[in-house]
């Protein structure tokens, strides 16, 4: 009996460390699970905070945008309100320059944006449009030295009343000029019916720096500039039908529109 008692005592005592080890592992696992849950909770709180900040920032952006749209529209209306031709031309010039400033500040990222207004320089084939010395605002101190003419994709599309959007100039064919100092650009004709007064362009220093909203806003500002040119009256235009370039083919890109 004594031997049995001793054996039993040994068996029970040897299992105690085993039970204690299992309990320790259970407690450790429980603590780790609680820690993981707490980390997930904190991560959700951080993500919710970031989402709310982004949402609030987006709302502020749209509020500012709507305010700027209203301001630019009334600015054109003010320019047209002056009945004296000389005074009206002066006010229209101010309005056009202000619109270019808005294009530069509102479209695309906060930095590295440039806007150019190309006006008709030659109404004879192959026709030409050059960036106006005053019609420029943004990244560089001087306007673009590019000349748009018949055969250029942007010019040909403008004659068809279509905008153009290239989100990465490196994707352009080797035969096309990729510009200097910018990686993405968009254009929209300044035209009404058969008359094309010019082309409004915006470019940015980094690829994919323009979104669809920017492209649509470019069309809006091109429309305001068109009103200014029509009201100004004595401005050279290129007759779209005469160029015979309304037949330009090609796949539509995001932002492409016909007037």
Description:
The protein has 259 residues and is of the alpha+beta class. Helices cover 52% and strands 18% of the residues. The chain is built from 5 helices and 7 strands. A hairpin with an 8-residue loop joins strand 2 and strand 3. The N terminus is likely disordered.
Summarize, please.
The chain is α+β, with helices and mostly antiparallel strands and 259 residues long.
Helix- and strand-based class? alpha+beta
Broad shape:
elongated
Radius of gyration from CA coordinates: 33 Å
* Series of H and E elements: HHEEEHEEEHEH
Low-confidence stretches: 1-16, 245-252
Q: In oligomeric terms, what are we looking at?
A: single chain
Keywords:
259 residues; disordered N terminus; alpha+beta
Topology:
Blueprint: H1 2-81, H2 85-106, E1 113-122, E2 128-138, E3 147-148, H3 153-159, E4 164-166, E5 184-192, E6 195-204, H4 212-232, E7 238-239, H5 240-243
Antiparallel strand pairs: 1-2, 1-6, 2-3, 4-5, 5-6, 6-7
Helix pairs in contact: 1-2, 1-4, 2-4
């Amino acid at each position: 009996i004594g031997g049995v008692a001793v054996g039993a005592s040994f068996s029970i005592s040897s299992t105690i460390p085993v039970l204690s080890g299992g309990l320790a592992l259970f407690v450790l696992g429980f603590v780790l699970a609680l820690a993981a849950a707490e980390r997930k909770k904190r991560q959700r709180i951080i993500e919710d905070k970031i989402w709310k900040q982004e949402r609030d920032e987006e709302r502020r952006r749209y509020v500012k945008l709507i305010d700027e749209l209203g301001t630019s529209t009334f600015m054109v209306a003010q320019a047209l309100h002056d009945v004296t031709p000389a005074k009206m031309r002066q006010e229209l010039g101010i309005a056009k320059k202000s619109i270019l400033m808005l294009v530069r500040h509102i479209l695309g990222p906060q930095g590295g944006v440039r806007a150019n207004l190309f006006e008709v320089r030659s109404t004879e084939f192959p026709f030409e449009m050059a960036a106006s010395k005053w019609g420029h605002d943004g990244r560089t101190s001087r306007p673009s030295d590019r000349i748009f003419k018949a055969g250029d994709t942007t010019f040909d599309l403008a004659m068809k009343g279509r905008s153009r959007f290239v989100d990465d100039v490196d994707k352009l064919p080797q035969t096309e000029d990729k510009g200097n100092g910018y990686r993405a650009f968009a254009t929209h004709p300044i035209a009404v019916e058969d008359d094309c007064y010019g082309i409004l362009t915006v470019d940015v220093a980094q690829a994919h720096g323009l979104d669809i909203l920017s492209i649509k806003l470019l069309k809006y500002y091109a429309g305001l500039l068109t009103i200014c040119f029509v009201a100004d009256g004595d401005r050279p235009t290129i007759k779209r039908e005469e160029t015979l370039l309304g037949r330009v083919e090609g796949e539509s890109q995001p932002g492409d529109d016909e007037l």
